[in-house]
Amino acid sequence: MCEKMINLHESIGDLKSLVMLDLYGTQIEELPDSICRLSSLKYLILGPGSSLENLPKSIGDLKSLVDLDLHRTQIEELPERIRRLSSLGKLILNGCVSLRKLSKLPSTLTHLKVESCISLQKLPSLSSLKNLRELNLSNCKMLEEIQGLEATKSLVEFSLYDCDTIETLPEVPLTLTSLKIESCFSLQKLPYFSGLKNLRDLVLSDRDKLEEIRGLEATISLEEFSLYDCDTIETLPELSSTLTSLKIKSCFSLQKLPDFSVLKNLRELFLSDCDKLEEIRGLEGTESLEKFGMYHCKTITDTPRKRLGQGKLLVDLFSGSYSLNLNDGIYKGLILCLVFELDINEQGRRRNTGKDIIYIHHFKGFDWFGFPLKGIDAIEEISVQGRDCDVKFWKLLPENTETDQRMVADFF
Fold first, then answer.
1. Which of 96, 163, 224, 313 is the right S-S partner for 245, CB 3.0 to 4.6 Å?
2. 323-325 and 314-315 as β-strands: parallel, antiparallel, unpaired?
């Protein structure tokens, strides 16, 4: 690594067979115009770390250039002739904090990454980028709009993070397979999803003003959906039967979920900190469910003197936690008795509420806090955990004789 290099000699342009020029970690301040004579150059890596502020105006003469990496340079703007780079496929502008504007980009681009360009206010229209497949816009705090997104006919991955001043999005291209929109606090309205027949992965988070998600039920290829920190969402529309993973966290206004009985392919379901969530319907109809986690959903679990449950469980005495490992072959029948003690936190101190949840397993099937789950041989572990809930005591009793019923009564 040539950390003290600050310039290149003009003779660099005589290396007609040079394919890659990597100036990573140097202190290059300026590129000679002769670099544009490198007719075989395919990869030009100018960052991170250089002090480069401008590119040569004749940069467009590099007709073989495929990859241009300006990561964490001091570039302020790109020359107009950059659109003449007729082979350019990837442009990386991550961390170009001085970049104020972008010129029209070459139509050959397939990957465009613009991250932490905190001075960038405007992008050129993307409508000419017919070959663009991946677009990543992240932490561009002053970026106000995205034009021409709907015309990018080849786009499959679009990520938008921490772009605080964007208020609206145009319609997104129907070719998308992955869409991630996170921490865009001014964005009030999402595009209509019904036309996204190829969408497989959807992530929405930190959307304080989002009240509805439109057209989600028509995303017939959707496999993974994550919804985080969307405080104003109260209900979700019907979900595609192709869904395999659903994760919902810190949606404090969410009260109602769609019926899960149609989600025959759902393998994992995680719900966390959804305080107003009242019920989960149709969970017994999910034929492929392998992982189910629910944390701090108080409206569902915080019911005094609740009697629920059925199943055959074996307590893991040596795990150091209140985990219950299923073993369907050791006993013909079991009665599991659990008492949960509920606390509240007041000024840093925990106080007992005087409310307990009594949980009893003693009949066929399996039921966890009111959610019947079929196919118990597919469930390996149930974990009981929470900041405001302790297991007060528990006991495991064999279910065979009339004496067992008196044992349960004695337990309480």
1. 224
2. antiparallel
* Distance separating alpha carbons of residues 352 and 375, to the nearest angstrom: 36
Q: Sign of the C-alpha dihedral, residues 132, 136, 142, 144?
A: positive
Q: Yes or no: say if 162 and 183 are a contact pair by the CB < 8 Å rule.
A: yes
- List, for residues 241-264, the tens digit of each pLDDT value: 999 999 999 998 999 899 999 999
Pairing of strands 307-308, 349-361: parallel
Buried b (16+ CB within 10 A) or exposed e, 149-188: bbbbeebbbbbbbbbeebeebeebbebbbbbbbbbbeebe
CA 396 to chain centre: 40
Q: Exposed (0-12), middle (13-18) or buried (19+): which is 70, by Cβ within 10 Å?
A: buried
Beta carbons within 8 Å of 311's beta carbon, 6+ residues apart: 326, 334, 336, 361, 365, 366, 367, 376
Cβ contact 105:111 at 8 Å: no
First to last CA, the chain: 73
pLDDT tens for each residue of 106-117: 999 999 999 999
16 vs 326: CA distance, rounded Å: 69
The pTM assigned to this predicted structure is 0.75
What residues have CB less than 8 Å from 85, skipping those under 6 apart?
Answer: 59, 60, 62, 63, 65, 68, 106, 108
The residue to which tokens 């590099």 are assigned: 62
Nearest-CA neighbor of 271 among 225, 329, 240, 307? Answer: 225
Is 59 exposed, middle or buried, given 0-12, 13-18 or 19+ CB atoms closer than 10 A? buried
DSSP 8-state secondary structure symbol assigned to residue 303? -
Strand, helix or coil at 298? helix
Q: For residues 116 and 97, is the Cβ–Cβ distance under 8 A? A: yes
Contact residues for 37 (Cβ-Cβ < 8 A; gap 6+): 13, 14, 16, 61
